[in-house]
């Protein structure tokens, strides 16, 4: 079959697909078109064609625009650009409607449930104008310039004009030169302090690079340390297409393993310790570790988890994939000192930060461990409620089977990917639980990402 790459197709766009595109058809093939809106007639340039039933394209000319179209608010993410703001060309209400349609389709296709949750804005700046992101991870090119990756590419775009970060978060970063191949983590905490941490270049597969193997270029005021941060859940390829070929999959696994290897850190600005507040409690966390990107998300999710979980005084509760224990703290406040709360997290740094913040709750045990192993060892106990906030790939069958075997009365499940969220829900339904409540939040405005929360009950 002749490749369609660089061919321009005139297509009418159909519904949104999971991954920030609209679905179109041309000469019997499916075309995933970015930068368009449902119902639009566009000229789409094919950007990727590996044969088979589908190809990918960018809408480069809008022939019949949707009434929901607005001038693009992100200059970095248009055709040929970065993958940051998929829906920057749509009104905020249209963005949320698109996400609602995607969630509904994933639920219908995977679980059989007919639900279309309204995607809700999070209080505070929550529209396509930006100003909501407090955590930013940048990459550094061979010339030492900070930037972002081009969509579905390792190429670095040294353009920091994306409107997502809170005001002043990226001030001065474009003017500096950084270590080629490094990553930069920028965090603005709840006290308004900016922290910039430079992570040494990740070792290539097979290469060892531990603490002390690089000489710092930073000034005397900068601090260096070795750490293994929990990576922020970030935008990635959509989950609606078949797996990549074996060779590409092996290379992707190798790159992820290298990226998560312990890397030297240099604290370039601030202390490297971000102060965060949720429900009146103070956390002092690593600026390079995981925290919700939207500045209102942690508080919003914490309030809803507490409302849905509602363990009785003296009850036992679990918080799995607990991070620094934001949800565990709310559960412990509800169970009181007569109760027992277990929180499990695989990142040692997050556990250390959480234990420091939660030292006044001795009935809460926050420990380092792999969730799948921990729940398998504790499935004969009977918690009243379990909260799970797994990574983008979801919890999966081993974890959910062990959780449902423990027979909690209520399960609160959180997911940032509609497809993996729906797959996990299907496992709960198969185990005899019913969906008691469902909410979805626009935690990543102007992008295709959406956070979903479900209450499962017996």
UniProtKB/TrEMBL annotation:
S-adenosyl-L-methionine binds at residues 292, 321, 345, 389. Keywords: Methyltransferase, S-adenosyl-L-methionine, Transferase. The keyword Ligase does not apply. One of its GO terms (biological process) is methylation. Pfam families: TRAM, tRNA_U5-meth_tr. Gene3D superfamilies: 2.40.50.1070, Nucleic acid-binding proteins (2.40.50.140), Vaccinia Virus protein VP39 (3.40.50.150). This is Class I SAM-dependent RNA methyltransferase. The active site is at 416, 416 (nucleophile). Its EC number is 2.1.1.-. GO terms for molecular function: methyltransferase activity. The keyword S-adenosyl-L-methionine applies. Residues 248-258 have a biased composition (Basic residues). Residues 199-263 are annotated as: Disordered. Residues 2-61 form the TRAM domain. It comes from the Bacteria. InterPro entries: MeTrfase_TrmA_AS (IPR030390), NA-bd_OB-fold (IPR012340), SAM-dependent_MTases_sf (IPR029063), TRAM_dom (IPR002792), U5_MeTrfase_fam (IPR010280). Residues 212-236 have a biased composition (Basic and acidic residues). Belongs to the class I-like SAM-binding methyltransferase superfamily. RNA M5U methyltransferase family.
